[in-house]
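Structure, all two chains, one model.
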Amino acid sequence: MVQTNERWGSRVGLILAMAGNAVGLGNFLRFPAQAVQNGGGAFIIPYLVSFLLMGIPLLWIEWAVGRHGGQFGHHSAPGMMERIGRGRAWKYVGVFGIFTNLAVAAYYAYIESWTLGYVWYSLTGAFAGQSAEQVSHFFSAYLNIGSGHFLNISGPAILFFLITISINIYILSRGLAKGVEIASKIGMPLLLVFGAFLAIRALTLNAGEAGAVNNALDGLNFLWQPQFDSLTNPKVWLAAAGQIFFTLSVGMGTIQCYAAYLREKDDIALNAATAGWMNEFVEVILGGSIIIPIAVAYLGLPWIQANVGFEMGFRTMPTLFQNWGPFLAAAAGVAWFGLLFFAGITSSLAMGQPVMAFLQDEFNLSRKRSALTLGGILLMLSAPCLLLYEMGAFGEYDYWAGTFSLVAFALLESIAFAWVFGIDKGWEEINRGADIKVPHFFKFVIKYVTPLFLLAVFVGSLLKPEAGNWAAAFGSLFSGGGWPFAADSVIGTVLNVGIAEKRWFIDGMPTQIFILNMTRLLLLSTFIIIGVAVYAAWRRKGAKA
Amino acid sequence: MSTSAWIMMLTTWAIVACFCIHFFIKVVRTPQGKKHSVKDA
């Protein structure tokens, strides 16, 4: 194995890169949507409890797993898991840590490219004078959706996607300190400045001013009005735990990879806590203070509750900015889509690094060749997301790689760390070189509470009932009506619940269910191919030894 | 905004901001690898 000499250039650079990995599009688009869909202020308490009992402990686990693996020359999950799990089979659990990054990066880079495209359109005044319908239609035209075509081929979308992939590959090919670290040192401060500008503008919007029909504070009131009765609702708890999970980018193998470039006695306890709290700062304070207050000010609460979602950031926000006059509209558009772009790129770089590390460590590829290989794989894997966006390929990637795999990997990893590697050794690993004293209470949390929390999220995602109504689902089960799986539960997805048309072809044309099943097959094949690559790499090392 | 919403929001913001700033200052003041760890101290 080629031992890499790469190290982080500075501690602040490492923290910004780790925080940049965690801070993503979800901080600004998913968090507000989740909060609105789960009762506003009702969401915050379970969210913070999940952060303390699952988020922070998982961060410590992943930093410890990464730094431990790095001491043996492993900078990607398979080798790390073999060391932690103390058995050959555990390296195959680490396949999740490569697969997830590749598959998520394939669709994530596409969303990232939308933000880059929209920065351009904001700068060139493309939205000036457009009505709400026209701006919404602009988004459909940009992706070439809603036109009845089977393939969503769009020149501008493909162009900005290729630019985005090229920027990512170029930065990654420059290495950790000269590429990822510099990008994070530029991107994160700019993101904070853009976010602060938008949040201050949003929170000072009053009814009757700049076309606003409501006070922006009405949006904040909805978000922060405590509703303590929701604490007994499992749906809210699962949503809050899920959000913490996704926002911290745990269960991906990215944190482990970045931590693997630390030295044996470098601190991880303080570093992990700082990166985690920095992500919360961006999500709770900035993420919660932009899209909801602005949208409530112009569109009202009922509209938000009915329409909140990921695409709202692209379909709605440019229209609302138009109320601020030509200059501020352009500035706000650049700030909004610019902050999303920086949030996106610092995350996509983190997804690329473990794959590159795997190719460098296990197949002796140079940094540039591994970057180019990654670029080639990403282009191939992202093709279904771009071309079959409307047929559901994009959503399948998000579901299986960006949701299911994360939870599965984190669950197995937390069990391996606390129960196979052993909590005593694990605790020693977390505390070695620590710059803060981790409260002893967390030893108990890491051993029992975090794995149970993850198990609950995992089982919850498997069995999620219709409308998230667990009481009604148990009622139906005990009265002989069976378990009503939600269409977005794992089992419901596998069984294609909610899809009426079960035929694969109609009049010679593939149906949505065919595309969904083929996408699943492609993702499964990717997982298996990575597993075979891991097997081949270890066999090769065994032959050399 | 209701009083309870204000209290909830400002308390959460204060907790998040305090931890974030406190830890970040500690990181800036203690360069990696050039410190005495809690364990070593």
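The CA atoms of residues 10 and 16 of chain B lie 10 Å apart.
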